[in-house]
Amino acid sequence: MQTWEEIEKIQPVASRTIMNSINKNRISHAYLFQGDRGTGKKEMALLLAKYLFCMNRQGVNPCNNCINCQRIDSGNHPDMHWIEPDGASIKIEQVRNLQKEFTYSGMESNQKVYIIKDADTLTVNAANRLLKFLEEPSIETTAMMLTENGHAMLSTIRSRCQIIDLQPLAPGILQEKLQQEGLNEMDAKLLSVLTNSLTEALELAQDDWFAGARKIVIQWVEMYTTQPEDIYTYIHQYWIPHFKDRESQERGLDLLILGFKDILHQHIYTDANTILLSNDPSKLEKRLITFSQAQLLTILNQILMAKRKLKANVQPTLVIEQLALQIQR
């Protein structure tokens, strides 16, 4: 998204709050963007960063063409620093390094910006170190923290930030927008359930990795009705090589949840439309015989538990092996 007007279409309150701050020349020294995955936290932070560095501003918007805008888009601006978890958390060494960078003069101006992704994963020591940084802000420094769980952060950090709440985009509205972009109804419906972001949904629609992930998950679910004895081999041959990092593993589990929800809905509603699985009558009958409603509820809870284990940095292969065996019981 290149302008605040584009963001306003999906986040009207949040975008207007930022635009009002820009118009009144009251940009905060620290922002906390909080909202579900895909609601536009990163896009808003980068757009604000571009505005701060832009050489040819167009009202409240950056020009998106100058060298500073281009370097922010490519992640190469020397005075904008991006921090994300090192493993499962953001560690004190990362905050120390950030503070060290800020002791130097800006490469091209006195303006400096830092963006912290998944700020709720700051360790206690890192959070306390960052707090001291926030307590003595430089006029030229702007901090932006992105999180899906703002309430997990220190209240003292929250109190020093202007909190920007991002609302989820209704799936029906997103599905309609995706179909307007040329996606078929089934793809648009699936993507509107997986993400609240139009940009992310369109990227996934063109992503070969996502197409492969979708195929792997569908085959895994269907194998429980046809070849359950081969599940363990299947996940080692296909799942583990394909889902290599925590973000992709969580995406895979989100797809798995949709697959088993499809079966549950087919138990409850005779005319249920599936989101991930096909409506092939022969496959439907096998699914309903294989899984009872009680089993499906248990399986969905087990998948959610697997997601929590991944967030707790439990070894991913072990998590998936255990899950596969739990579902089979």
TrEMBL record:
<protein>
    <submittedName>
        <fullName>DNA polymerase III subunit delta</fullName>
        <ecNumber>2.7.7.7</ecNumber>
    </submittedName>
</protein>
<keyword id="KW-0808">Transferase</keyword>
<dbReference type="Pfam" id="PF13177">
    <property type="entry name" value="DNA_pol3_delta2"/>
</dbReference>
<dbReference type="InterPro" id="IPR050238">
    <property type="entry name" value="DNA_Rep/Repair_Clamp_Loader"/>
</dbReference>
<dbReference type="GO" id="GO:0003887">
    <property type="term" value="F:DNA-directed DNA polymerase activity"/>
</dbReference>
<dbReference type="InterPro" id="IPR004622">
    <property type="entry name" value="DNA_pol_HolB"/>
</dbReference>
<dbReference type="InterPro" id="IPR027417">
    <property type="entry name" value="P-loop_NTPase"/>
</dbReference>
<keyword id="KW-0548">Nucleotidyltransferase</keyword>
